[in-house]
Specification:
about 400 residues; Butyryl-Coa Dehydrogenase, subunit A, domain 1; Butyryl-CoA Dehydrogenase, subunit A, domain 2; Butyryl-CoA Dehydrogenase, subunit A, domain 3; 3 domains; 4-stranded antiparallel sheet; globular
């Protein structure tokens, strides 16, 4: 049987070269220091500086605005690689790029020209500020308000669990510009909020895993934002901006899940060939072999779902269905593989000297972030009925 090799385009070659450079970067500058930085919960400034030099903060920003212009498919493959080495590094990029994507997709041309080049170089880095103490999945319940006052908006409220909250300098901030509006989402808008008077970090939030990246509470007290920082220039589009950003965000989180699942599998495959019990290698025990088979299958299925969602995104399609499936399956795969890896490693899996314990701590975040997996199931079901009416 003759197999015809696919014809690679110039873009394919460029993408391959980028991914190879990311692999070298991870091997030289992240893998050797990740364990110590993660245990110390230290922000990886040197790693961030190198990512700036590589242009990774402009990964999905169009070339015309100074970015790399990567497709979502290539971006997700890059994130998978990073997450497999240290997931926190992928979060530093992702939250920033969701903000950039929202500006690219929904911002005015003036906003794109002013901000996207600075986002791409990493000169101005930040993230997405949606969640509040009493509003997570239910974004329409946010209480942060923005009142128009001449050429400015005056913002009051609190955001929490904001990635890059301490080290970042600017955030896509979801606010209520009309708290009485019905439906509620019509009174929501999004502002580009740079740190300044009235905008402060309340506190750093301690976490089980996902260490190194800063997660913070942000407090706004009569914080004034120029009116031309209203994304899109029109009030009432904040929820649409958030949903648009979360589609890319869920593909990213799915890719992180693939990375964690793959790392757990790789660590297990290596360990079962080194460790012997009852006179034979671990992988020769049927109970262990069954685990490996399931772990490998979950990982590959998660990867395929993620790539499918990314390709649909690249075609400009609505992808809440595909991204929801990818996010749901890949993050559950990460969690299951991390637990199975710990069981395979036994007591060593519980030791901080092994990578497995970090995977075990990092994986649970993925089933919560960018919309809980329970919400993903509901969204998938809703879209399934919409696509198949009778």
């Amino acid at each position: 049987m003759n197999v015809i090799a696919p014809i690679l385009t110039e873009q394919d070659h460029q993408d391959r070269q980028l991914l190879e450079s990311v692999d070298r970067f991870l091997d030289r500058h992240v893998r050797p220091v990740a364990m110590q930085l993660e245990h110390d919960d230290t922000y990886p400034q040197d790693i961030v500086d190198r990512m700036k030099e590589m242009g990774l903060f402009g990964a999905v920003i169009p070339v015309e605005y100074g970015g790399l212009g990567l497709s979502a498919a290539t971006y997700s493959r890059m994130i998978e690689r990073i997450a497999a080495v240290w997931m926190s590094v992928s979060g530093i990029i992702n939250s920033h790029l969701i903000m950039a994507h929202i500006v690219d997709r929904s911002g005015t041309e003036a906003q794109k020209r002013e901000f996207l080049p600075r986002f791409a170089t990493g000169e101005l880095r930040g993230g997405l500020a949606l969640t509040e103490p009493d509003a997570g999945t239910d974004l329409q319940a946010i209480r942060t308000t923005a009142r128009r006052d001449g050429d400015h908006y005056v913002v009051n409220g609190t955001k929490t669990w904001i990635s890059n909250g301490i080290e970042g300098g600017i955030f896509a901030l979801l606010v209520k510009t009309d708290a009485a509006a019905q439906p509620r989402h019509t009174g929501m808008s999004m502002l580009l909020a740079e740190k300044g008077p009235g905008f402060r970090v309340g506190r750093k939030l301690e976490k089980l895993g996902y260490k190194g990246i800063d997660s913070a509470e942000l407090v706004f007290e009569d914080y004034r934002v120029p009116a031309d920082r209203l994304i899109g220039g029109v009030e009432g589009r904040g929820m649409a901006c958030a949903i648009s950003g979360l589609e890319l965000g869920r593909i990213n989180v799915a890719a992180r899940g693939v990375g964690i699942a793959q790392a757990a599998l790789d660590e297990s495959v290596r360990y079962v060939q080194q460790r012997s019990t009852f006179g034979k290698k671990l992988h020769e025990h049927q109970a262990i072999a069954l685990k490996l088979g399931d772990m490998a299958t979950r990982t590959e299925a998660a990867r395929l779902l993620t790539q499918q969602a990314a390709r649909s995104f690249d075609r400009g399609e609505r992808v809440d269905y595909e991204a929801g499936m990818a996010k749901l399956f890949a993050t559950e795969a990460a969690l299951e593989n991390a637990i199975e890896a710990m069981r395979i490693h036994g007591g060593y899996g519980y030791s901080k000297e092994f990578l497995v314990e970090r995977l075990y701590r990092d994986a649970p975040l993925l089933v919560i972030g960018e919309g809980t997996n329970e919400i993903q199931r509901l969204l998938i079901a809703k879209r399934l009925i919409e696509r198949n009416p009778i």
